[in-house]
Specification:
Structural class: alpha+beta
Strand content: 5-15%
Number of domains: 3
Shape: flat
Helix content: 40-55%
Number of strands: 13
Distance between the termini: 41 Å
CATH architecture of the largest domain: Up-down Bundle
Number of helices: 18
Length: 561
């Protein structure tokens, strides 16, 4: 899984467009980072920027944004409605995919140290990055705001994690709060009522904090306190959730407005189910869900899989189909059309350059038939392997829905899920094989006048050629994994689809044998044959295993036919 983190810095400038644009430009100038949103607020005099990417580029962009903000914002002249302690007031790192919260916390501490060491900006570390337990709470770090910094920085107990005296740099930049937190989902659940009071009652039922205890369990009875005179609270049912009820004039309905701060404990679909239950207990109904802002892809995929499993339907369907189930199950399109391409972080990060795998079948085959050398046999082999995985997956999905086989749906769903993973891998290899060929072509364009240039060109050519042998071996490995799935479906799947399982095996073996030829021809072009020897040995092993499996699949198919 690609490592992706999000950064959502809040800068203490929301009115001067030139300053805001300059900070955003400094962030966007870092390769590998994509700015998703810029939200300035005039009353708060504060701008929230959202950008994403792999961890190293994001941390570099965060630093460059801080450097530019320090240059252009003077906290001695800042006024706004929002609490703040510095020009770069808060700077959280947030895991999106392939990264843990702890990894983000470690990076946040390094970033805070760098901001102080290189820029002189005092930094507090908060939430998951906190180095003192009480500083997990941002409010503790920012207590007293900018105006309290001279006093706090003179107190060893309250001074920043990174920072010394309140000098001229600190006076201008203030103190930054650098942290790490899990992804926060802002979501509203639409109710079939106009009553704010009833919406608030549902919110109290589910939010972690719950509601104040009252005599008789009523909503209006006398408040109950413990022996120390402290208010007694009845906790709600959802961990890591904050919620209130409100009425929205624009929609003419009441909503339960929720922030899910722990999506591991409470995924979106769990929140939807629990709010629906609590609403029904009070004679209400959740009519839809409104996601505010963006979400990681896993949020909707987990929801889609949850509802597919409840329906005892195969989970081994396309990502698009899983998303569709999530949208319909939670009525994400209740108030307006919901397009995952506009709401999912990973989709917004995609470079939408269409490759061979995105072409139509006709487009791909005609491109292959053209007089260009690529795509060639390697890409076609990956395509054949993909067809093999796809057919095995299709038989599994059909078997999961076969009348009378309802109790076996999970068995076939597992096969289909594995097939989808192989299909995704092989589709990527269609383009990766052509990219490997193009890399060799690029080497031929390198200069070779001097001895140094010739040596560099020869080295690059060997590396590119070895890579061109390694890529089709990956195609072989992935295609080989499709054959046991085809065999299982030929023996145990829907008998009416036995021939499809047979074609799956034939396609996978065609991909394997074709890719083997590409391994061999590229290995033969190497001056140093030693690095390619393990590739050639493994390629022979795969062909042998594949032919044995193919025979078993075809035998099972013949028995069915």
């Amino acid at each position: 899984m690609k490592k992706v983190i999000e950064c959502v810095p809040n800068y203490s400038e929301g009115r001067n467009k030139q300053v805001i644009d300059a900070i955003v430009a400094a962030i966007a100038a870092v390769d590998g980072v994509k700015v998703l949103d810029v939200d300035p607020g005039e009353a708060t005099n504060r701008t929230v920027v959202t950008f994403v990417g792999e961890p190293d580029p994001v941390c570099e962009a965060a630093f460059q944004g801080a450097k530019k903000a320090q240059e252009l914002i003077d906290m001695r002249h800042h006024h706004g409605a929002h609490p703040r302690s510095g020009a770069i007031d808060v700077l959280p790192l947030i895991p999106v995919s392939g990264v843990t919260l702890e990894e983000c916390a470690q990076r946040a501490r390094k970033l805070a140290w760098r901001m102080y060491e290189q820029l002189g900006i005092p930094c507090y570390c908060y939430e998951a990055a906190a180095q003192k337990p009480e500083r997990r709470n941002l409010a503790v770090c920012r207590a007293g705001e900018y105006e309290a910094l001279p006093e706090k920085m003179a107190d060893p107990a309250r001074m920043p994690d990174f920072g010394g005296a309140f000098d001229e740099v600190a006076a201008k930049s203030g103190a930054s709060n650098v942290g790490a937190r899990d992804f926060l989902i802002a979501v509203n659940f639409n109710l079939n009522t106009t009553s704010t009071r009833r919406a608030m009652a549902v919110a109290y039922d589910v939010r972690e904090k719950g509601r104040k205890a009252r005599e008789g369990g009523s909503l209006t009875g006398k408040l109950l306190k413990d022996e120390n005179g402290e208010q007694i609270w009845i906790p709600g049912t959802l961990k890591g959730c904050k919620a209130i009820g409100w009425y929205i004039d624009e929609y003419g309905i009441a909503q339960v407005s929720m922030n899910i701060t722990d999506i591991q404990a409470t995924p979106l679909h769990k929140a939807f189910e629990e709010v629906s239950r609590a609403a029904a207990a009070r004679g209400l109904r959740v009519t839809g869900t409104e996601i505010v802002g963006l979400v990681p892809k896993r949020v909707l995929l987990d929801a889609g899989r949850f509802y597919l499993e409840k329906q005892q339907r195969s989970l081994g369907v396309s990502e698009e189909e899983i998303m569709k189930i999530a949208v319909k199950s939670m009525s994400l399109d209740d108030l307006r059309p919901f397009n995952p391409r506009e709401k999912v972080i990973e989709y917004l990060m995609e470079d939408r350059k269409d490759g061979l795998a995105q072409m139509s079948v006709e487009g791909f085959t005609r491109e292959t038939a053209s007089e260009s050398a690529a795509p060639g046999g390697g890409s076609v082999s990956a395509c054949m392997g993909a067809f093999g995985a796809a057919l095995a997956t299709m038989v599994a999905n059909l078997s999961a829905h076969k009348r009378g086989w309802d109790e076996r749906w999970k068995e076939f769903s597992n096969v289909a899920e594995e097939g989808q993973k192989l299909l995704d891998e092989l589709l990527l290899l269609i383009d990766e094989d052509t990219a490997a060929f193009n890399r060799i072509m690029d080497v031929f364009a390198m200069p070779k006048g001097s001895a140094e240039e010739k040596a560099a060109r020869d080295k690059a050519l060997e590396e590119a050629t070895l890579n061109a042998a390694a890529v089709p071996l990956k195609t072989m490995e992935a295609s080989l994994k499709a054959l046991p799935l085809a065999l299982q479906m030929a023996r145990e799947g829907n008998p009416a689809s036995a021939s499809d399982a047979g074609v799956a095996a034939l396609a996978a073996v065609a991909g394997i044998r074709g890719a083997a030829l590409n391994v061999r021809i590229n290995a033969a072009s190497l001056k140093d044959k030693a690095p390619a020897e393990p590739l050639l040995i493994r390629a022979k092993e795969i062909v042998r295993e594949a032919l044995e499996l193919q025979d078993q699949v075809l035998e099972a198919v013949e028995a069915n036919i």
